[in-house]
Specification:
The protein contains seven helices and 21 strands. It has 416 residues and is of the alpha+beta class. The termini are far apart.
Length: 416
């Protein structure tokens, strides 16, 4: 045991010096090695805030009496751009405006970028706001399709025309053309017949407008009525019969389309509400509420408002001491008032039952001076016939249209 203890002490005394030697070598190596410096790089971060500008547009539809300068001022068009447009190559396009033309003003924040002017489906003109305005004009040429339709009346003209495949707008135009001579509410009979040749404009396969009648023929109670479209030297459109007489009269025969007479002119009629004899100095047309009512002639509104038992009423003064009255209205055309000028066919109000009325209808009166006249029997004054200077051109147009109508009629008959 004594020998073993002696060996352990001897080994331990050898280990300690060896361990100390290792430590000395390690620290000596550390002193020779360079300690890298800690480098902190400073970086700057730029925060850029991007604010997107606001693009927006405003729209304006031209109304009666509007002028370009006023429209531009209201829509914040710079004066220098207005000045350049009025001195530019398209000044007439911008200056000659009609109701229904449309403007679109494009802005970037408050800065005007571009103005667009649209005149119907075929014409558009834009101008970019710059030192020298840049214009872009689009003026399309439509493809015109001509169609011929005919039919015979069994119950009503409107139903027969629809069954013949005539578009609703053409039906209304046809009734309007012959509305001076035929009351489509009162005069239509079973067996009456009609023919119509009309054209419809298309652009890239899409219809851009309602069809326009070239020729129409109506047989009413064995009486033939014809209408031929004609453009005079100024480009204005008219309709004449085969003899060159104008279809247009100073007054329409009726102020409503396709209603029916519910009460005739009768000085001895018994009033349905008051239950006593009271003169019925006009004609009552039964129609649905809010059916449009048209002025039967050119004139000036002399009364628009409530009128005792008539309810909401409009009175119009025409030439030749003639006045017309429209009563029991539901509402008025908001664009019209007393003093407004109206043209024949202008919508002045809508059917209702205001005042002493049992159901929606229009009461219509026709007065010459102080004398009330039956609107269904009064002889309406004619418009002027075609100018003699226009007669050769009209006869040529008539010949071409009648030939085309005859050919199309034969083709359809053979196909059937």
């Amino acid at each position: 045991m004594a020998i073993l203890k002696e060996l352990k002490l001897k080994n331990f005394s050898l280990i300690i010096p060896a361990f100390l030697a290792v430590l000395i070598v390690f620290f000596a190596a550390q002193e020779d090695e360079e300690i890298p410096e800690l480098s902190i790089e400073q970086s700057s971060i730029n925060l850029e805030v991007s604010i997107e500008k606001n693009k927006h547009s405003s729209f304006y539809t031209v109304e009666e009496g509007d002028s370009m300068s006023v429209i531009f001022e209201e829509n914040k068009v710079p004066l220098n751009l207005t000045y350049r447009i009025l001195r530019g190559p398209h000044k007439n396009d911008f200056a000659n405006l009609i109701p229904g033309n449309e403007f679109e003003f494009h802005f970037l924040d408050n800065e005007l970028l571009k103005i667009e002017l649209r005149k119907g489906s075929l014409f558009s003109l834009s101008v970019i706001n710059s030192n020298e305005p840049e214009y872009e004009l689009i003026n399309l040429e439509p493809e015109v399709i001509r169609e011929f339709k005919s039919g015979k009346i069994i119950s009503s003209f409107y139903e027969a025309a629809l069954e013949s495949g005539i578009p609703d707008s053409v039906i209304m135009d046809l009734a309007y053309l012959f509305g001076w001579d035929i009351d489509f509410i009162f005069d239509i009979r079973e067996g009456d017949s009609f023919k119509v040749l009309y054209e419809t404009p298309y652009v890239e396969g899409a219809k851009i407008d309602n069809g326009d009648i070239l020729y129409a023929e109506f047989i009413n109670q064995e009486q033939e009525y014809t209408a031929i479209r004609y453009f005079d030297r100024s480009g204005e459109k008219f309709y004449f019969d085969k003899d060159g007489n104008s279809l247009k009269k100073a007054f329409l025969r009726a102020p409503l389309d396709f209603a029916y007479v519910s009460s005739h002119f009768n000085p001895r009629r018994k009033h349905p509400i008051l239950n006593k004899i009271r003169a019925h100095n006009g004609v009552d047309y039964a129609a649905k509420r809010n059916t449009p009512i048209r002025s039967t002639g050119d004139g000036v509104i002399i009364h628009q408002g409530w009128k005792s038992g008539y309810g909401r009423t409009i009175q119009i003064r025409h030439g030749g001491e003639i006045t017309t009255l429209y009563a029991h209205l539901e509402s008025y055309n908001k664009k019209l008032s007393e003093g407004s000028k109206v043209n024949q066919g202008t919508v002045i109000g809508y059917v209702g039952d205001s005042g002493l009325a049992t159901a929606p209808h229009l009461h219509y009166e026709f007065k010459v001076g102080d004398k009330r006249t039956d609107p269904l029997k009064v002889r309406l004054p004619d418009d002027k016939p075609i100018d003699k200077m226009e007669l050769p051109k009209f006869n040529q147009t008539k010949s071409q249209i009648l030939d085309l109508t005859k050919k199309l009629s034969i083709m359809i008959a053979d196909a059937n």
